[in-house]
Amino acid sequence: MTDSVIELDLSTPWEPPEPPAPQRRLQARWVAAAVVLAVTLGVLVAAGPRPDGGRLYSVQVQVLQAQVSNGRLIVARYQPTAPGPMIEARRASDGSLLWEHSAGLQLQMAVAGPDVVLLLSESNMGDGVSNGLVVLDAATGKELWSRPRIGIQGTNAEVVVVEEVRSTTQTIIMDVPDQEPGVNYARTKPERRFFGLAARTGAVVWDVTIPAGHDVDLGWASPYESRLVGFDELGPTGQLTRRDARTGAVTETHQLDVSGTSAMLGSGWLDSSGPANNRLVVYPGGERGADVYDLATGRKLFRWAGDNGGGSLFRCTDRFFCAGDDTGLTAVDSTTGKPRWHLDGPVVVAGFAGERLLIGTFSQASSQMAALRPTLTGIVDSRTGTVVKKLADWRVLNTDGSRPLVWRPVDERTAILGELDPATGTVAVFATAENWFGDPMCSVDGRFLACLVGGELSVWRLPNPH
């Protein structure tokens, strides 16, 4: 079956839905925080709704990045006469300027929450690269607090999670020592110290030190957000300690039959759509593949033979793990490790919708951030691996776990925007975008969509959920 398109009647005014309960929607993990797209734009043009499906206005002020949150549009842009970017807050509905805040030259990213804006900066202190954090009041732009020499790990409704930077703190490893390809590389594990800081005051809410030799696995709400919900600690004796990232409190402990040094571990889920995690995946250092453990009994269930260099195991249903490599995507039973189904070719899981998986492929993208958004190819029944719907050239707009918004090029400068129904594969088109050439960087929050693409930032009011 091919994909279907519904053209919505946009001539009749509609009432926007009630905004959702406030929650922090952050657009990228902190490992990608230093990646920004610099495009040269012009001036702000604000106008009423246009006939192209709720487009409200465009912002053209030398924009670096933009994010919508809680009815505000947070924009980082170049300043023509000063070093460092300017941070602006605008009313999302009409683009009216609310406040401005001049930022430092080393600013890497501005992240908006419901009531705060986090400004992340990067500096070289001589013993490694560390992040600094400045927190602004989202309503006024007033600086609330700041903290230097920390590594930003994530945030949630309660706290900002940071790591203390020490001389032994490891940065991103660019080169792995010479070893056989596909063998898990076990790094040195120094002592690490994590803090949960109150978002509005910077006060320490919790303080956890991870002893040397222990592994840490941070658990996010989705693979493309920084909403940190929990973290695991695995000691060399096999003791697993699970903590709530909001409070730092221990929620579970398990004794696993683990021996040797681990290179990496993970609970498996790519997002928070599944039930409580009952498996742990450990990649033994100096070996290939991974061992899967049952948390209830602590025993090893099976060895996955795939190599860590070509991908890793992740939970794609409550019963199966999935792994991708050069041959395609394979699902294996999470208890026995036996293969259940396989899809040929370059396939990635782009989203979850109950018992359906949205699958796609990565194309040659013009930016690293855009490369996080795949082109959809179909919808798969996760129980059988059957492709129940093929999708032609629809590309993902947002990867934050909210409404499944997509776009498709019409010609070299025009695109159509729509919302995908994962149950049927139908796309309800709600807008036509002009001057759309290249890969978009988009942000969604409740009623608003903001996309920076091809030299222009446009803001749309979304229709009622389809």
Automatic annotation (TrEMBL):
Q: What is the protein's name according to its record?
A: PQQ-binding-like beta-propeller repeat protein
Disordered: region residues: 1-22
Q: Which organism is it from?
A: Dactylosporangium cerinum
Report if keyword DNA damage is assigned: no
Q: Note whether Transmembrane occurs among the keywords.
A: yes
**Per UniProt, which keywords does this protein have?**
Membrane, Transmembrane, Transmembrane helix
**TM regions (residue ranges):** 30-48
Residues covered by the Pyrrolo-quinoline quinone repeat domain: 69-206
